[in-house]
């Protein structure tokens, strides 16, 4: 997330209502973040307009501060635009035909092989059709994939017409029953009129049940134009985004989905046949915003209502605060899990944060055995006091030492959280 956006979100932290000027300032930065993620310019513009309308005047809810509220609204809308929930093609008992289209190099042939493996493992009887009528090498590539997966590959001949291909396919199915046929087609490096006609003809002859556009996540700005053209010339029913294992943040997915309105069924995540996953809009939304699972943290903070987790200043985070927080956090699930949702935090976390519930109870006992003065000012806890506290809580002096060390580390972490705008201090309306 850009520093500038972070600054704006920080400034919003003490507001209880989102004003138009604030939202607009934040949205300028959100738009930049989208463009950096390769979301098409016009899609970013439209998206920001929609979010602004939703955000202005909104009450800041529950335990979120205003900055988090903006992020939440943006994230929710991004997930919605990407399709909401993960979605898969609906298959009939028989007669399913997938028609794969896309530019050359997008990953059509690879994805065809991946789909064959995916559906074969689900018990489907798959047949692949190598329908590149110009390049024998392209057909060979699919034949090899078919062999690897263990499914037959029907080859189209050079210059074969769509009607001939259809007859050939029907003849094959007479002798070898198949319930899912996946047709791999030819591509071009650029949108090409002759190819579009050819694909439209073949599609017309085969009447596929799904027409899937394969989009390379690295396509960037061009994804919009590609998706728009295939949608208008061929007609699409769904999308597959490949090469999500690369550096691309996923803006191409947003653009393609936005312009076609068609579901993104799968994401390609490696060159291997196993590298196909359902497309999860929430994960990709986080990736587009460059925020990782911070959003998950916001959600959980919301669920447990962290109002009472508010702390004063980082330096003032004392053992009494720790006790109160531990009791709050226990409502939310394992502390380690929660902390590990913050990007970069999993490596920085000391092993002490693998606290299970039993340990949390022990810490509770230890702090409960301290006087309020000791909790507020841990520095006064000398050797003698440590011994007394250990006895009182049924623990050892080493346990007390570890707790005090953990508290120090936690204090540092609180400072970091606050710098990230995630700390509870100030919170809604401040205190
Ligand atoms: P086609 O021209 O559309 O059929 O594209 P191909 O299926 O031949 O793929 C082009 C290149 O992209 C090949 O080198 C593939 O191995 C690679 N590729 C396809 N999908 C993925 C993916 O999801 N991740 C990665 N890393 N590479 C991919
Ligand atoms: Mg190919």
| Hetero compounds | guanosine-5'-diphosphate, magnesium ion
Question: Averaged pLDDT, please?
Answer: 83
The named CATH superfamily of the largest domain: P-loop containing nucleotide triphosphate hydrolases
Portion in helices: 40-55%
Structural class: alpha/beta
User: What is the element string, with H for helices and E for strands?
Assistant: HHHHEHEHEHEHEHEHEEHHHHHHHHH
Count of DSSP-assigned helices: 19
CATH arch. level architecture of the largest domain? 3-Layer(aba) Sandwich
Q: What is the general shape?
A: elongated
CATH topology of the largest domain: Rossmann fold
Instruction: Indicate the low-confidence ranges by residue numbers.
Output: 304-312, 343-348, 423-431
Strand sequence of the main sheet, in spatial order?
A: 3-2-4-1-5-6-7-8
- Tell me, what is the CATH class of the largest domain? Alpha Beta
| Beta content | 5-15%
For this structure, the quaternary state is: single chain
Largest sheet: 8 strands, mixed
What's the layout of helices and strands?
Layout (H helix, E strand, L loop, with lengths): L2 H10 L7 H17 L4 H15 L10 H16 L14 E6 L6 H14 L4 E5 L5 H14 L3 E3 L6 H14 L4 E5 L8 H14 L3 E7 L6 H11 L4 E5 L8 H10 L3 E5 L7 E3 L2 H9 L4 H11 L14 H12 L4 H6 L4 H4 L8 H12 L3 H5 L6 H11 L3 H23 L12
Parallel strand pairs: 1-4, 1-5, 2-3, 2-4, 5-6, 6-7
Antiparallel strand pairs: 7-8
The site of magnesium ion has 3 residues, from helix 5.
